[in-house]
Design the sequence.
């Protein structure tokens, strides 16, 4: 195998591992929401444990990126790909951390039934998971249309967050006995909103990787 | 920073529509670009792409080659160096060159550096000594050479011989310095010294370097020209060429796929 071929293979493996890391993070978000919906404390513990895998992949991928930079002195698109991977893993790692936060909130809410059925929070979570899947798919396929489409979902997430914020505040104002649950639900929606922002960052890095253009697409 | 940088860099050497033929073979194809004062410009490309040929056109080093034909225009400070009234000696004083292998003369260190000024008619020893010291100092060789100025230059290490060649060039106060793979025969420490020196010398001169070493071009130059098969494919700021080249051929070359 030529030097170039082995470098290409290492780049491929790097991207495959990033994808794996992203899929674990997505699964964590999914399970954290299931734990909330089913008041399943064991599942919430699973989410907390899964974060170790995300952290491990984060460190491993970062150290391999650094090795590639030192040993291969990558240029142009190779360099941009490695730089993008290094930034993206930080965002994916944060997604994992927020999933853990949601799981921990769901434990606090598990002791009694919720005062109202969950509707908008699961919808918001579905949207966030869709964004994460699209960002990873866009990374693998270099499909910038998909990335732009994904980033537009961030607006929908922001709207849902604002709507839920007002709604939960309303409950709290009306009945102090709801404050405990409403506040924890608010924390969960906040985590989902933050996850969507990190996923938007991933999209920006994919665009940089492909075009060399570095720009903020969404505040 | 001591000197104020002009907002727009000034073109020092301008190449327009340059074609060069060796007999039937066209080695340069309609090459056009400007080299800017107080900048280091790197010319990169695979072997045989014409980068050394282009460099050698800039002080008419190709003139003596049989069967060569050159069309187009090269201007130094706006005046055509291939014009009828161009004095070749004056041109090569203004546009000096350092080669891949250090070509020191089999003379003392002092006489190597004093060689150029003497050719240009300077005889006063005190004045020559002053130029020798200043030139050696400007390439960072004065400390090592001051006590052995009369020792044979061939006794210096390869890296120091290359620095001596640069000192010999600086002694005649050129305006443009051409470097043709100046570090390819040198060890990494000497290579780094040459690169640092280029950065130092660019404050006073226009530096143009041909190199096979892409990391060297990336580290040590402000602008990079990429050539392929006699054509100038892409020319731009070094950071752009190595992070986001516009032409797919440049992309393939800098990522090692060409």
Sequence:
């Amino acid at each position: 195998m030529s030097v170039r071929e082995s470098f290409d293979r290492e780049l491929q493996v790097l991207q495959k591992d990033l994808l794996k890391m992203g899929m674990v993070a997505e699964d964590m978000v999914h399970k954290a929401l299931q734990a909330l919906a089913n008041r399943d404390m064991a599942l919430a513990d699973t989410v907390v444990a899964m974060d170790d895998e995300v952290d491990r992949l984060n460190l491993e991928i970062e150290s391999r990126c650094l090795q590639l930079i030192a040993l291969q002195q990558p240029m142009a698109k190779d360099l941009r790909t490695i730089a993008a991977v290094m930034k993206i893993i930080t965002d994916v790692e944060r997604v994992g951390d927020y999933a853990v936060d949601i799981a921990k909130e769901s434990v606090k809410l598990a002791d009694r039934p919720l005062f109202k059925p969950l509707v908008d929070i699961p919808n918001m979570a579905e949207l966030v998971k869709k964004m994460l899947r699209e960002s990873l798919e866009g990374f693998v396929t270099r499909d910038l249309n998909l990335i732009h489409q994904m980033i537009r979902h961030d607006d929908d997430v922001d709207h849902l967050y604002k709507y839920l914020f007002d709604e939960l505040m309303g409950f709290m104002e009306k009945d102090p006995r709801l404050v405990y649950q409403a506040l924890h639900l608010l924390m969960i929606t906040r985590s989902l909103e933050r996850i969507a922002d990190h996923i938007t960052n991933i999209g920006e890095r994919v665009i940089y990787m492909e075009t060399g253009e570095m720009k903020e697409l969404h505040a | 920073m001591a000197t104020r940088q002009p907002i727009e860099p000034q073109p020092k050497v301008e190449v327009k529509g340059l074609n060069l033929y060796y007999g039937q073979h066209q080695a340069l194809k309609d090459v056009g670009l400007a080299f800017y004062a107080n900048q280091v410009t790197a010319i990169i490309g695979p072997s045989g792409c014409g980068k050394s040929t282009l460099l050698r056109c800039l002080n008419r080093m190709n003139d003596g080659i049989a069967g060569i034909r050159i069309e187009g225009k090269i201007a130094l400070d706006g005046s055509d160096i291939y014009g009828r009234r161009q004095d070749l000696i004056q041109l090569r004083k203004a546009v000096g060159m350092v080669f891949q292998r250090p070509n020191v003369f089999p003379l003392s260190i002092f006489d190597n550096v004093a060689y150029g000024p003497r050719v240009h008619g300077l005889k006063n020893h005190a004045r020559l000594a002053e130029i020798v010291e200043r030139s050696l100092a400007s390439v960072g060789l004065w400390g090592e050479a001051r006590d052995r100025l009369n020792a044979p230059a061939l006794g210096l290490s390869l890296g120091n011989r290359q620095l001596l060649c640069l000192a010999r060039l600086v002694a005649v106060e050129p305006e443009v310095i051409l470097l043709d793979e100046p570090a390819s025969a040198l060890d990494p420490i000497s290579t780094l010294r040459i690169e640092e020196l280029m950065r130092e010398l660019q404050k006073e001169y226009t530096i143009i370097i041909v190199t096979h070493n892409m990391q060297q071009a990336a580290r040590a130059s402000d602008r990079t020209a990429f050539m392929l098969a006699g054509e100038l494919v892409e020319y731009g700021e070094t950071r752009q060429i190595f992070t986001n080249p516009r032409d797919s051929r440049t992309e393939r070359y800098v990522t090692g796929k060409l």
